[in-house]
Amino acid sequence: MISKNIAILGGGNLGSSIAKGLVKSGLMTPEQITITNLELELIQHLKDEDGFNITTDNVSAIEGAEIVIVAVKPTAAMALLNQVKEVLTSGNHVLISVISGVKIHDLEEVLGNMPIIRVMPNTAIAIQESMTALSFNEKGLEYKNEVVNIFDQLGSTMVIPEAQMPAATVLASCGIAFALRFLRAASQGGIEIGFSSKLSQEIAAQIMKGASKLIIENNSHPEPEIDKVTTPLGVTIKSLNKMEYEGFSSSLISGVVAGYNKILETES
């Protein structure tokens, strides 16, 4: 466990997922975490069901914490940071930003020279299965081991140059949606060939889990694993070739690139 308190400014899906993941990992207790939102009723369940501290007061949340995680929408970020910049101090706080599209330089312009870490997790952080990318400013590097250790408890981490953060956002964060869309499509196909909706979804979810473990645990590449189940004149290759003919791989690649270009537009 860590002894520091954390303030999470923004109790939306990502902010609450981080909080739940920290507790589920055993790294922190709910009492160490304060979550804020402008509308208290929207996060009341986080107190009633999970035991977190909640408040609408960002300043008081920061004053009671050593680590501050900003998890608001990009459109609300600068107004929030300007509101709290007087209480965010280099000697007392480490700032972790999960704001998509907001660069470390942008944060430094508002907050000055303080430890800043830009982090891009995904919502699987709530079950300790996130793929989280991290970039540090110079002062933030002093806390590199501590911060990486925190997010290592919540899945897998990769420390990258900030220039790669747009790519990490699309593949590691948005990628959850891409994978779930595949799961939904596979499940719908299962319904069409005779399974119930519930059973079809269970099958699709388990095959995704199994496929991922084959790659991660065997340190393998998809193609050799695909070759193991594609026999000559077989069902698998017939299905795969039909999917490729309909644009399966090319549409997914195009979608990843489109998302990447959208982020570059936002950040430019």
From TrEMBL:
The keyword Metal-binding does not apply. Residues 6-100 form the Pyrroline-5-carboxylate reductase catalytic N-terminal domain. This is Pyrroline-5-carboxylate reductase. It holds the Pfam family F420_oxidored. Its main location: cytoplasm. It is found in: Cytoplasm. Residues 162-263 form the Pyrroline-5-carboxylate reductase dimerisation domain. Transmembrane segments: none annotated. Keywords: Amino-acid biosynthesis, Cytoplasm, NADP, Oxidoreductase, Proline biosynthesis. One of its GO terms (molecular function) is pyrroline-5-carboxylate reductase activity. It catalyses: L-proline + NADP(+) = (S)-1-pyrroline-5-carboxylate + NADPH + 2 H(+); L-proline + NAD(+) = (S)-1-pyrroline-5-carboxylate + NADH + 2 H(+). Its EC number is 1.5.1.2. Pathway: Amino-acid biosynthesis; L-proline biosynthesis; L-proline from L-glutamate 5-semialdehyde: step 1/1. InterPro entries: 6-PGluconate_DH-like_C_sf (IPR008927), NAD(P)-bd_dom_sf (IPR036291), P5C_Rdtase_cat_N (IPR028939), P5CR_dimer (IPR029036), Pyrroline-COOH_reductase (IPR000304). It is an enzyme of class 1 (oxidoreductase). The keyword Cytoplasm applies. Belongs to the pyrroline-5-carboxylate reductase family. Catalyzes the reduction of 1-pyrroline-5-carboxylate (PCA) to L-proline.
